[in-house]
Design goal:
The chain is mainly beta. It contains 2 helices and 21 strands. Strand 8 and strand 9 form a beta hairpin.
């Protein structure tokens, strides 16, 4: 892959963003074995906040990882979460090695969870439904290579809609991946797939992008967040691995209400970039933010839940009108 430098002057967090100062969830909050707690899907139902998070099993201090399951937590305020005594979901057999990176949507009177599936023949995207967050019915698992799926909270033109990130081996330069959209009549059979947003459309990206959280419906369009990655070969050891040359930031865009494959606005700068000790210096992979939850509160405050360093869950907030302005107006 040829290295294409990005403009470093673009990498500032939007002024409308306010970070919550404390960690929302860490391994210390989990009542079973936990080394890393991150990439958490979050929604609000009947006044209660629900979180399903990725829990990597192991020893943080010894930098040992042994497996992955999904944990469930509840909160009354969206800040202080209590984790259930046992993990809520895991899959493993001769073909499937683990599931991870959950996103959750409430639709048709049930919860739909999207997740990634590591198999012995590639990574897939899975979807499961549940009414009680205890018993899950698998609806579909994609072919490799596909992941980062998020489901829209309502049908559009009679079909379920999801954003996804295929990972074609013959992509441009072999590692440049984009955001696509697919439709389904039943959450089982998916098709009508088409490109939504390409990496070359994102000025601060030189590697790959992928969907973040289930979209929020506004009168201007579907508001989406996504992760964007840039690579710099000069970056050295940043975390547990021998070398980590990537930076993950959070972007924001607006999709057409009736045809969400059409991008009608996008901020030309990142929405949130890594800042401070817990985002730049601590974690499994530092310099990495990964969004998985976005909620609209009654006062038009948008909460964004994201992982930092592939290790903890953090939260930031902004006014909805300010976020829409970023997508529709030039940013100074």
């Amino acid at each position: 892959m040829d290295f294409k430098p990005v403009d470093e002057s673009l990498f500032t967090t939007a002024k409308c963003i306010t970070r919550y100062p404390e960690t929302i969830l860490s391994r210390h909050d989990v009542p079973y074995r936990s080394a890393l707690t991150f990439n958490a899907g979050v929604l609000k139902k009947d006044g209660k906040y629900i979180m399903i998070f990725r829990n990597d099993i192991g020893d943080y201090d010894k930098q040992i990882l042994e497996g992955t399951n999904l944990g469930l937590a509840y909160s009354d305020d969206g800040i202080h979460f209590k984790v259930e005594p046992e993990p809520c979901f895991a899959m493993k057999d001769d073909e499937i090695m683990r599931v991870y990176d959950p996103r959750i949507t409430y639709i048709d009177d049930e919860y739909c969870m999207c997740f990634a599936v590591d198999t012995r023949h590639g990574v897939c995207g899975g979807m499961a439904v549940t009414k009680d967050l205890k018993s899950f019915e698998i609806k579909s698992i994609s072919v490799p290579e596909n992941r980062n799926m998020v489901l829209f909270p309502e049908k559009i033109n009679g079909n379920y809609i999801r954003l996804e990130r295929p990972m074609p081996v013959y992509s441009r330069d072999g590692n440049i991946f984009d955001i696509w959209l697919s439709e389904s009549p039943d959450l089982v059979y998916w098709g009508k797939s088409r490109l939504v947003l390409a990496t070359e459309d994102v000025p601060y990206c030189n590697d790959k992008i992928g969907p973040g959280a289930p979209p929020i419906k506004t009168d201007k369009g579907w508001l989406i967040i996504f992760h964007s990655v840039d690579i710099d070969p000069s970056r050295g050891k940043n975390g547990w691995e021998k070398a980590w040359k990537k930076r993950y930031v959070i972007g924001i865009a607006l999709l057409d209400l009736n045809d969400p494959s059409k991008v009608i606005g996008m901020s030309k700068r990142p929405l949130i970039v890594p800042e401070g000790y817990y985002e730049l210096e601590e974690g499994y992979r530092t310099n990495a933010l990964f969004p998985c939850g976005m909620l609209l509160e009654d006062d038009r405050t948008v909460r964004i839940y994201y992982s930092a360093g592939d290790a903890i869950v953090r939260m930031a907030s902004a006014n909805l009108d300010d976020l829409l302005a970023l997508c529709t107006e030039p940013r100074k």
